[in-house]
Specification:
The complex is a heterodimer of chains A (153) and B (779). With 153 residues, chain A is α+β, with helices and mostly antiparallel strands. Chain A folds into 2 domains: 74 residues, Ubiquitin-like (UB roll); 67 residues, Orthogonal Bundle (DNA polymerase, domain 1). Chain A has a 3-stranded antiparallel sheet, with helices on one face. Chain A has a two-stranded antiparallel sheet with strand order 1-2. In chain A, a hairpin with a 2-residue loop joins strand 1 and strand 2. The radius of gyration of chain A is 15 Å and the shape is globular. Chain B has 779 residues and is α+β, with helices and mostly antiparallel strands. Chain B has 18 helices and 26 strands. In chain B, helix 9 runs parallel beside helix 10 and helix 14 runs antiparallel to helix 15. The chains are: A alpha+beta (153), B alpha+beta (779). Chains A and B meet through helix 1, helix 2, helix 3, helix 4 and helix 5 of A and helix 5, helix 6 and helix 16 of B.
Chain lengths: 153, 779
C-alpha cells in the first residue's frame, strides 16, 4: 500500500492503496464515482472508460500508478449544473435502454468529438467500434453523436 | 401494518437512498426519487395486496408513488406504469413516481418474465388506480358537500362542475393518511376495487410519449445501481469456478492466500469456493492466487460445440414425445409433386450480461437483505429463504437497475451466493463474477436441432409440413426452487431430477392442411454443475424455432418459384378456419405493412446473380410472441470474398395492440431487433468436451457499432385491420421483435447469394465456406 494522489473532475484525492490496483476500483470504491463501471476487466467493452488528458482510457486495465494527468469521469462532464452537449443529445435521442454501458458510450463519444467535432458516419462507427452495448442501442448512440456534433458546430 | 411503516419511511429523512433517481442535473422531475427501506429493521412480511395502501401512496404535496411488483429491464416499463396509473387516477404524470420490485413494499407481481408486465399487471395497476380515484371522489364529495356526479377531477384537483372555484386537492384529502380501503380478488392478478377502468377514449396519457424517467440519471452518472450498493462493514467476494465442468475439488491450500493483503476467508462447501477480502481488487487477486486441486471427470462432459448437433440428432430424448398430427401428412407426402427437406441448427447462445453477475447481501439484525438486478426478485426471496433455511419474513430482496441480458441470468446465482456468504461471514458481502466466469458459466439459451419436411402439389401449393425439433434443455434454472442455482449444484444439493425445459412449435398462422409437429428434449452427459445449464433468454425458444420455420417457408417459396411475401400472404389468406382472436388478419396486416414500408418488389429469390464482390438481397420473416405479431425485413450486403454480412437496412411492422408509449416502444423494438441481429451474426457458445472456450468479448463476440444498419424503420401496425374487430388491449412488446430476425437475415443472404444458411450464427468464415461449397437448396 502507498499513498497515491489523483486529480479527478477538478478535485485532488489521496488514497492509500496498492499502486498496481486498477484505477477503476479506486474511482468506484474509494472516490464513490460510479459512472465508470466494471464490464470485463480486460479493456474489451468500454464500460470503465474515463478521459485522461483528453484520451478515452479504459480504467479497468490502467494501474493507478500509471495515471499521469487529470481524470474526467461521467460525473465530471456537466459544467455549472449544465449537462455536456453529448449528454443532452443522449437524453434528446433517449439513447439508454438498461444504460449500463452508457458511461462507455458517452465518454468515448465525448473524446471522439473533442478530436473530430464533425465525424462522418464511417468515422463514428470506427471510433465507437470497441465500445459494446448488450441492449444494442448502437443506432440511437450514433444518432445522438450526430446530434451532438451539430450542437457543437 | 406495512403501509404504516412505509409511510413512516417516506417521512423519515436520512434513509438509504438506493436508486430510482432521475434528478440529476437535467432539470427533469425530482419526484421520481423514492427511498428504499432502511437497512435496519425487519422482519419483512408480504405487503397485503387487498389493501389499496399497498399500491398507491399520496402525500400532502399532491405527489403520488405507485408500488409495482414488476421490474424494468431498460424498456420503459416503469414509465408506462406511471402513464397508465396517472391516467386512471387523474393525476399529472410529473407528480408521480414508481417503486418496483422490492419484495417488502411492492406486492408480489412476479417480477419480469415473458414481457407481460404491461399486458397482465398493467390491468391490475389500472384497476387499483381507478379505485383510488373513486375513493378520492367520495372524499371530495363529502368535503365539498356535493354529490360525486357534480364533481370533476383534473390533475389531482377535484372541483365542482358548476363552481370551479370550489375545489380540493388529492393531497389535502389523503396526504399523510391511509386509504384503509379493502380490495377484492382471489389472487394478486385478480385484484380489483369497485371502480371501473376508463375506456380507451378517456385515456389521455396512454398513447403519448413522455420521455423515460430513468434516462437522465443514466446519462449524468447519478443513478445508483445494484453494483453500486455500499454498506458499512461490507466485504468483497469472488468465486473460484472449477477449471473444467464436472470437476471435483479434492484439496484447498488456504496458505496460498492467507498472507495476501485484506484476506478474510476462503469459504468452501463441496465444489463451491469463494474468497472473501476487505477490498475488491484484493478479492480478485486472492481468487486468482488460491491453489486448489481438482479431479477431472473420467468421461467427457459434453460433445464439443462442433459436434453438438450431430449428438443431439442421434441422442435418445429424455422425454418421449409423440408427434401431433393434423390432417393426413403421410398421404400428402406420398402424393406430393415435390418434397423439400432441410435441417437447421441453432447453438447455445448466452445471456452474456454486459456486467457479470453481482449482488450485495446484508445479514444485519438476523435478517437477510439482497440487493440485486435479478428480474425475479420474488422468487429469489423464496428460494434464498429455503436455501438458507430462514423464514421468508426474514428475507427481503431489493431490485435495482442492472445490466440487462433479458432473461433468467446468472444474477440469480449471484444473489444466492451473496446471501450464503453473508450468512457465513456475518458481514455484508458483495459478490461479483469475473468476465470469463460470466461468459462461460451463465445460463444459456438452449441449442436446437430441427428437421423440416414440406410437400408441394403440382400447382406448387403447400400440402403438408413436418416439423421436428430437438432441444438441449435438460438442466433449466427454476424459480422458487433453490436447488437449480449453480451454488446449490456445486454444493451437491440437487433436486431428484433436473428441471427440464421444453421444446416449442412455430407460431405462424399459415393454412396448411396436413401437419406433423414434434418437439423433444435431449440431455447432455453432464447434467449437474454444468456451464450448459439453460435459462429463459428473451422468448426462450422463439428465435430458434422461428429461424427454422421461417427459413423453411422461404425454401418452400423458392421451390414454388414464388415471391417470399406473396407466398406467405397466400398461405395466410387461404385460412378459412376460425380467426376469433384475429391472429390471421393481424398476421396479414403486419406482413403487408412491412413489405409496403420496405418497398418490396415482387419476384422470386434468389436475386439476379451479380458478378461483383458485394451481393445484395432482402429477406422477410414473421412470428407471434403471445398475442403480439411482427413481420421483419432485412436487407443485406454479402461480401463474396470474405463472407462478411452487413445488414444495411431493417424494417419491422409490429402489432402489440394498445400502445402505451409509442416512442419508447419504437426504441425497444430497434434494440431488440439488433439483439436478434447479434444472435444471427455473432453469438454462439463454443466448448470442447470439458469446458466452455468462449469466455470474453473476443472469443464470444457480440454486435458492434460497425454492424449497425444504416436505416431502421419501425411501423406500429396497431390500427384495426378488421372492421369487426374490437379495440385490442395492450400486449407484451419486449421480445417479439427478436423472434423473426435470424430467419429474416438468413433469407436475405439466400436472396443475395443463392446460398442457404441453415446454421446460425452467420459468421464470416461460415458464410464464406457456404459460398465456396455452393451449398444450395436440397430438394
Amino acid at each position: 500500500m502507498s499513498n497515491v494522489t489523483l486529480k479527478v473532475n477538478g478535485v485532488s484525492h489521496t488514497v492509500d492503496v496498492d499502486p498496481a490496483t486498477p484505477l477503476l476500483y479506486i474511482l468506484r470504491n474509494d472516490l464513490d464515482l460510479h459512472g465508470p463501471r466494471f464490464g470485463c476487466g480486460l479493456g474489451q467493452c468500454g464500460a470503465c472508460t474515463v478521459i485522461i488528458n483528453g484520451a478515452a482510457t479504459r480504467s479497468c486495465v490502467t494501474p493507478v500508478s500509471a495515471v499521469k494527468g487529470e481524470i474526467t469521469t461521467l460525473e465530471g462532464l456537466a459544467q455549472n449544473g449544465v449537462l455536456h452537449p453529448v449528454q443532452q443529445a443522449w437524453i434528446a435521442e433517449q439513447v439508454p435502454a438498461c444504460g449500463f454501458c452508457q458511461n462507455g458510450q458517452i465518454m468515448t463519444a465525448k473524446a471522439l468529438l473533442d478530436h473530430n467535432p464533425h465525424p462522418t458516419d464511417a468515422q463514428i462507427r470506427a471510433g465507437m467500434a470497441g465500445t459494446l452495448c448488450r441492449c444494442m442501442t448502437y443506432y440511437r448512440v450514433q444518432a445522438a453523436i450526430k446530434r451532438a456534433s451539430k450542437e457543437l458546430a | 401494518m406495512r403501509s404504516t411503516s412505509r409511510r413512516d419511511f417516506l417521512k423519515t429523512s436520512g434513509m438509504l437512498v438506493v436508486g430510482f433517481s432521475a434528478t440529476g442535473l437535467s432539470g427533469m422531475s425530482s419526484l421520481v426519487q423514492a427511498p428504499a427501506p432502511s437497512t435496519q429493521g425487519g422482519p419483512y412480511p408480504d405487503p397485503d395486496y387487498k389493501q389499496l395502501d399497498s399500491w398507491i401512496v399520496i402525500r400532502e404535496d399532491g405527489t403520488a408513488t405507485f408500488y409495482v411488483g414488476k421490474t424494468d429491464c431498460g424498456q420503459g416499463t416503469g414509465t408506462a406504469f406511471r402513464q397508465m396509473m396517472s391516467d386512471e387516477l387523474d393525476i399529472a404524470y410529473d407528480k408521480t413516481s414508481c417503486v418496483m420490485g422490492h419484495t417488502d413494499i411492492t406486492v408480489n407481481q412476479g417480477g419480469s418474465g415473458g414481457s407481460t408486465a404491461i399486458q397482465t399487471e398493467g390491468l391490475v395497476m389500472r384497476r387499483v388506480a381507478a379505485e383510488a380515484r373513486r375513493v378520492l371522489l367520495e372524499m371530495g364529495s363529502a368535503r365539498l358537500k356535493a354529490p360525486v356526479d357534480q364533481l370533476v377531477v383534473s390533475d389531482g384537483v377535484i372541483s365542482l362542475k358548476t363552481n370551479p372555484g370550489s375545489k380540493v386537492t388529492y393531497g389535502e384529502l389523503i396526504g399523510g393518511k391511509r386509504f384503509n380501503v379493502t380490495l377484492t380478488g382471489a389472487t394478486i392478478g385478480a385484484t380489483t376495487g369497485v371502480a371501473k377502468m376508463k375506456t380507451l377514449q378517456e385515456l389521455k396519457l396512454v398513447g403519448k410519449s413522455p420521455q423515460r424517467y430513468d434516462i437522465p440519471a443514466k446519462v449524468d452518472g447519478s443513478l445508483k445501481w445494484a453494483v453500486d450498493v455500499k454498506l458499512p462493514g461490507m466485504v468483497h467476494a469472488r468465486n473460484v469456478k472449477p477449471p473444467v465442468a464436472g470437476a471435483t475439488l479434492t484439496a484447498v491450500d488456504e496458505a496460498s492466500v492467507r498472507n495476501l493483503p485484506g484476506f478474510i476467508r476462503v469459504v468452501r462447501k463441496a465444489n463451491y469456493v469463494a474468497v472473501v477480502c476487505e477490498r475488491e481488487e484484493q478479492a480478485i487477486r486472492a481468487a486468482q492466487a488460491l491453489k486448489l486441486t481438482w479431479e477431472k471427470p473420467s468421461t467427457p462432459s459434453f460433445p464439443s460445440s462442433e459436434d453438438l448437433h450431430k449428438y443431439m440428432r442421434a441422442a435418445t430424448p429424455t422425454t418421449k414425445s409423440d408427434a401431433r398430427a393434423t390432417g393426413n401428412p403421410d398421404a400428402a407426402f406420398s402424393s406430393a409433386a415435390k418434397v423439400v427437406e432441410a435441417e437447421y441448427d441453432v447453438p447455445f447462445q448466452g445471456h452474456t450480461a454486459f456486467s457479470p453477475a453481482h449482488a450485495m447481501a446484508d445479514p444485519s439484525n438476523g435478517q437477510m437483505t439482497i440487493y440485486t438486478n435479478d428480474m425475479k426478485a420474488y422468487t429469489m426471496r423464496n428460494g434464498v429463504a429455503r436455501f438458507l433455511d430462514m423464514p421468508r419474513e426474514n428475507v427481503r430482496v431489493v431490485w435495482m437497475e442492472g445490466p440487462q441480458a433479458y432473461g433468467r441470468t446468472a444474477a440469480d446465482d449471484a444473489g444466492f451466493e451473496a446471501a450464503y456468504l453473508a450468512k457465513e461471514i456475518g458481514r455484508p458481502v458483495r459478490v461479483q463474477w469475473m468476465r470469463n466466469e460470466e461468459t462461460a458459466w451463465d445460463t444459456k439459451g438452449p441449442a436446437f436441432a430441427f428437421t423440416m419436411r414440406g410437400a408441394l402439389d403440382a400447382q406448387a401449393n403447400v400440402t403438408a409440413l413436418d416439423y421436428d425439433a430437438r432441444t438441449a434443455d435438460y438442466n433449466h434454472v427454476g424459480y422458487d426452487d433453490p436447488d437449480t442455482v449453480l451454488i446449490a449444484q456445486l454444493m451437491g444439493r440437487r433436486p431428484p431430477t433436473p428441471a427440464t425445459g421444453g421444446s416449442d412449435t412455430p407460431s405462424e398462422m399459415y393454412e396448411i392442411a396436413n401437419r406433423r409437429t414434434r418437439g423433444q428434449v435431449v440431455g447432455l452427459p453432464l447434467v449437474w454443475e454444468t456451464p450448459l445449464r439453460t435459462g429463459n433468454l428473451r422468448d426462450p425458444n422463439g428465435p430458434q424455432v422461428t429461424f427454422a420455420s421461417e427459413s423453411f417457408i422461404d425454401e418452400l417459396a423458392v421451390a414454388a418459384k414464388a415471391d417470399a411475401v406473396a407466398f406467405r400472404l397466400k398461405l395466410l389468406q387461404a385460412g378459412s378456419t376460425d380467426d376469433s382472436r384475429f391472429k390471421r388478419v393481424r398476421s396479414i396486416a403486419v406482413v403487408k405493412a412491412a413489405a409496403q414500408t420496405y418497398g418490396w418488389d415482387t419476384r422470386p429469390s434468389p436475386n439476379h446473380q451479380s458478378s461483383g464482390t458485394i451481393a445484395t438481397g432482402r429477406g422477410i420473416a414473421y412470428a407471434f410472441r403471445g398475442e403480439t405479431v411482427v413481420a421483419e425485413i432485412a436487407e443485406v450486403e454479402v461480401n463474396r470474398e470474405t463472407g462478411h454480412v452487413w445488414v444495411k437496412r431493417l424494417v419491422c411492422a409490429h402489432d402489440c395492440g394498445l400502445v402505451i408509449n409509442p416512442e419508447a416502444l419504437k426504441h425497444t423494438i430497434e434494440n431488440g431487433m439488433l439483439h436478434g441481429l447479434s444472435r444471427a451474426l455473432h453469438e454462439e457458445v463454443r466448448f470442447d468436451t470439458e469446458k466452455v472456450t468462449s469466455v470474453d468479448w473476443v472469443s464470444s463476440p457480440s454486435l458492434k457499432h460497425t454492424d449497425t444498419p444504416e436505416k431502421i424503420d419501425v411501423v406500429l401496425v396497431n390500427g384495426d385491420p378488421h372492421p369487426d374487430r374490437p379495440d385490442l388491449p395492450q400486449f407484451g412488446a419486449g421480445e417479439a421483435m427478436l423472434k423473426p430476425m435470424l430467419a429474416a437475415v438468413g433469407n436475405a443472404i439466400f436472396d443475395a447469394t443463392g446460398v442457404r444458411m441453415r446454421r446460425v450464427p452467420f459468421r464470416d468464415e461460415r458464410v464464406l465456406a457456404a459460398l465456396k461449397g455452393n451449398t444450395t437448396l436440397r430438394s
